Amino acid sequence: MDGATEVVQDAMYKMGSDFKWEQIFAPISIRESHCMVQISDCEIALIGGTDDGSNPMDTIEIYNYMTNTVRNGPT
């Protein structure tokens, strides 16, 4: 695509009980080209991707938005 620009999303969202997206603010690592999956009623897993320097990340972070905490997922 000639003239295309890359858009980097710097926000995180969760699906509310009313099936509408709600923005949340999380203390997580910056990631690009990753997968983000809501895995329970209060947790979102961030899987793989690259850091802001294009280095591959092979980690999983699990963010609990009810407690505003992050834990490492399985390797």
Q: Mind explaining what this structure looks like?
A:
With 75 residues, the protein is an all-beta fold. It is built from no helices and six strands. The chain has strands at residues 12-15, 21-24, 35-38, 43-47, 60-64, 69-72. The strands form two sheets. Strands 3-4-5-6 form a four-stranded antiparallel sheet, with no helix packed on it. Strands 1-2 form a two-stranded antiparallel sheet. A hairpin with a 5-residue loop joins strand 1 (12-15) and strand 2 (21-24). The mean pLDDT is 81.
Secondary structure topology:
Blueprint (H helix, E strand, L loop, with lengths): L11 E4 L5 E4 L10 E4 L4 E5 L12 E5 L4 E4 L3
Antiparallel strand pairs: 1-2, 3-4, 4-5, 5-6
Could you write a compact summary of the structure shown?
By secondary structure, the chain is mostly beta strands. The protein has no helices and 6 strands.
Beta-strand content: 25-35%
Compute the CA-based radius of gyration.
14 Å
Number of strands: 6
Judged by helices, strands and strand pairing, the structural class is mainly beta
Helical amount: under 10%
Largest sheet: 4 strands, antiparallel
- The residue-averaged pLDDT reads 81
Helix count, per DSSP? 0
Task: Report how far the terminal alpha carbons are from each other.
Answer: 36 Å
- Residue ranges: pLDDT <50 for 5 or more in a row? none
State the order of secondary-structure elements, H for helix, E for strand.
EEEEEE
Strand order of the largest sheet: 3-4-5-6
Principal-axis shape equals globular
